[in-house]
Amino acid sequence: MPNFILIPQSDFLACTVTASSENASFPGDNVLVYGRPGKEYRSGDTAETTLVLDFGAVAQVGGLYVGEVNFEDLVIQGNDTDSWSSPAFSQAVTVTLDVLTQRRKGFFLLTSFEYQYLRLVIENQTRTDGAAFYRIGVVLAVGSAAALAYNPSWGYEYGAQKMYKRIETESGSVETVITGLKSRWRGVLDFDTRSGFEPTVEAWNAEDPGSVFLFYENGWNSGDSARAWLAKLEGEIRIGQPQYGKMQLGQMTLVEVV
Question: What does pTM read for this prediction?
Fold first, then answer.
């Protein structure tokens, strides 16, 4: 069984974004607002649409996350120049539905991608929500998409739910009022490993409050590319060493940003 992938925001690659068409109220650079994927990018029409990420110099890209989209078919391209008649790298992927949150997204591992430019090609296709435009909530590239040295200890807890309020009335009945439009994934990780894993955990702990992590199950339990979430750390990280040669991490809770 493969190990999970967990990448902090400080390891996301910086870039600029240029879209072939855009709604002025939902420009292309909205996809770089990692903490608010609901801001989103929208194309100006339903013709073939492209977004070009410029890393400023040749970059090694090990993985690409695309979230909150309303289409299935996507082509990821790479090139040394912003000229796309014959790109050096091209990989077609399918963006599938996350059954937990009912949103379409995915994390795609890339091999031998070392280019300054990365282009997303959204070919003309039926929008999954019937909209008259293509939408993307977030796009992020990472240099390394290495799996963790250790998976969390059993058990791994996760789930997704819309925000709600429980209201008790004077008559004694109980009403449940849905207060959020989207379900949010929430996962709880516990690590009980051999010493040597501390530098990884300490790097997570060094992240600024409010920064996000990319969490990917990496094929665990036969899950596909949609089993990836952008999430914030809830609470703090506590590292313990219960005995020589052992490391223990208190519950690490991640809550998806929407």
Answer: 0.91
